[in-house]
């Protein structure tokens, strides 16, 4: 019935990995057979080396030749299978490389699309205007700092010679006042000694004693 109506084969399709694995298993089995044949050939050669020429030696020689033919056949099959395995491995590596390339291309496409969407939302003119506004605000801030740090009492342009003359005049005035004060106050009781007597003093001081203490 399946042949008449063409039913689908549900068996999984072979892959390169499974094919390589099967080939390598065949190569391993051939290596086992070759090792067995080599052991037999060694035995026949050892026996023939100890025998004289005759029918017995000829019979062993015929057996050894048959084993040698089988060995060459197995070696040929093994070489072919190893070459097939190598070809499939190269195809597998190329497939993996192609998959990696396609994955990289897909990632680059997705990244490119995302970048276009993100940068498409950015207005360069708005950024330039914002930068200009920030620069203007910084300049205004600097002007405000300079204005707040301005001195109100000291003029900006001051002549040092005028300051020196004014300072010298103040010194002469102070010396003059000091001299006048000393000339007029000789023999007089200082004002702080004529103040009211503190509460902790029992009797006020006598004027004569005050003058003596002052003299």
At a glance:
This protein is mainly alpha-helical and 215 residues long. It contains 6 helices and no strands.
Structural account:
With about 220 residues, the chain is mainly alpha-helical. The chain is about 75% helix and about 0% strand. Helix 2 packs antiparallel against helix 3. The N and C termini lie far apart (about 155 Å). Residues about 210-215 have low confidence and may be disordered.
Note the topology.
Blueprint: H1 2-5, H2 16-49, H3 55-120, H4 124-148, H5 160-184, H6 207-214
Distance between the termini: 153 Å
Helix content: over 70%
Total count of helical runs of at least 4 residues = 6
Q: pLDDT below 50 for ≥5 consecutive residues: which ranges?
A: 209-215
Q: What is the radius of gyration?
A: 61 Å
**Could you report the average pLDDT, rounded to the nearest whole number?**
78
Subunit arrangement of the protein: single chain
Q: Largest sheet, if any?
A: none
Instruction: Count the E strands.
Output: 0
Shape: elongated
Order of helices and strands: HHHHHH
């Amino acid at each position: 019935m399946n042949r008449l109506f063409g039913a689908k084969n549900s068996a999984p399709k072979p892959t390169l990995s499974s094919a390589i694995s099967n080939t390598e298993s065949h190569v391993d089995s051939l290596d086992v057979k070759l090792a067995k044949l080599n052991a037999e050939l060694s035995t026949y050669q050892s026996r023939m080396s100890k025998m004289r020429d005759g029918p017995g030696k000829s019979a062993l020689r015929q057996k050894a030749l048959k084993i040698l033919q089988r060995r060459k056949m197995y070696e040929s099959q093994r070489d072919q299978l190893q070459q097939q395995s190598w070809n499939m491995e190269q195809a597998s590596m190329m497939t993996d490389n192609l998959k990696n390339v396609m994955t990289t291309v897909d990632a680059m496409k997705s990244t490119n699309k995302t970048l276009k969407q993100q940068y498409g939302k950015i207005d360069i003119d708005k950024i330039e205007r914002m930068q200009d506004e920030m620069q203007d605000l910084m300049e205004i801030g600097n002007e405000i700092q300079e204005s707040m740090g301005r001195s109100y009492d000291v003029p900006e342009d001051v002549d040092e010679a005028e300051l020196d003359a004014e300072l010298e005049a103040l010194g002469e005035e102070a010396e003059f006042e000091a001299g006048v004060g000393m000339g007029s106050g000789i023999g007089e009781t200082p004002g702080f000694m004529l103040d009211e007597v503190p509460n902790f003093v029992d009797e006020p001081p006598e004027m004569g004693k005050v003058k003596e203490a002052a003299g």
